Amino acid sequence: MKIHFIRHATFAFEMNGIRVLVDPMLGDAGTAPAVPNTPNQRPNPLVDLPFGNDGLSDLIDNTDAVLVTHTHNDHWDGRAQELIPKDTLVLCQPEDEARISSAAGFTNVSAVDPGLAWKSLRFARTGGRHGTGEIGAQMAPVSGFVIQTDGSPSLYVAGDTIWCDEVEEALHTHRPDVIVVNAGAARFLEGDPITMTAEDVARVCRAAPEARVIAVHMEAINHCLLTRAELARKLGEQGLAEGVEIPADGQTLETPA
């Protein structure tokens, strides 16, 4: 399995020759407003894509399907909706199926509810909590997804969630080989973080000590306050740094079968 990390929560993975693009946010830097009610008000995204127009065209042309964990703008933006062909298979949570079909005009949308088989890939939807209390309720619904195929490591895309019972259950039930977590400790001026903190990532490592953990969702959106360097430092203090990869924008990771 290959994982090409692009930016924020956007990455493409390849299993058995099938390439799936996850949570495409493809807009240029500064073309979207800042997330309101947050500690800084820089326009988003904070950084450009790690490739030019040719690289973007290659990404789109070589995508067999798109997986959207939820439809917040930093996971499914207007430019992605413009560039991705409307007949591309889009997989999503049930709550977003009609929105992607009707509002965005995609003609081949399938909800993973609770599972779905496509070509040689098997998808299972998992739960999550996009924060706590009232804010978490307002940010919902969100989902994670586990992808499996014969002859390849399994992949758990946790999505926009904090550490919670649903994540622990997904780890226990599916025992994934590779786990992509959305860190960044995103937050508003009030309330607790709505994506994983360093301690949340550490909990994932402890719950799945044999898995390869990949932490993304940092340094690209204005309300994500946890940096790559700070995450690495805090994991190092707990003796967990070697168990977590924190890719740079544009980096490709490969996991042997």
The main pleated sheet reads as: 7 strands, mixed
Total beta strands: 14
Helix content: 10-25%
Mean of all residue-level pLDDT scores: 96
CATH architecture identity: 4-Layer Sandwich
Low-confidence stretches: none
Compute the separation of the termini in Å.
7 Å
CA gyration radius, whole angstroms: 17 Å
| The named CATH superfamily | Ribonuclease Z/Hydroxyacylglutathione hydrolase-like
Task: Find the structural class using helix and strand composition.
Answer: alpha/beta
Tell me the count of domains: 1
Using the coordinates above, name the CATH class. Answer: Alpha Beta
Beta-strand content estimate: 15-25%
Report the total helices.
7
Secondary-structure element series: EEEHEHEHEEEHEEHEHEHEE
Task: Assign an overall shape.
Answer: globular
Strand order, main sheet: write it out.
6-5-4-3-2-1-14
CATH names the topology as: Metallo-beta-lactamase, Chain A
Q: Can you tell me about this structure?
A:
The chain has one domain (2-254): 4-Layer Sandwich (Metallo-beta-lactamase, Chain A). The chain has helices at residues 53-61, 78-83, 97-103, 133-139, 165-174, 198-207, 228-237; strands at residues 2-7, 10-15, 18-22, 65-68, 89-92, 109-111, 115-118, 121-126, 144-148, 155-157, 178-182, 212-216, 244-245, 252-254. The radius of gyration is 17 Å and the shape is globular. The chain has 7 helices and 14 strands.
What's the topology here?
Elements: E1 2-7, E2 10-15, E3 18-22, H1 53-61, E4 65-68, H2 78-83, E5 89-92, H3 97-103, E6 109-111, E7 115-118, E8 121-126, H4 133-139, E9 144-148, E10 155-157, H5 165-174, E11 178-182, H6 198-207, E12 212-216, H7 228-237, E13 244-245, E14 252-254
Parallel strand pairs: 3-4, 4-5, 5-6, 10-11, 11-12, 12-13
Antiparallel strand pairs: 1-2, 1-14, 2-3, 7-8, 8-9, 9-10
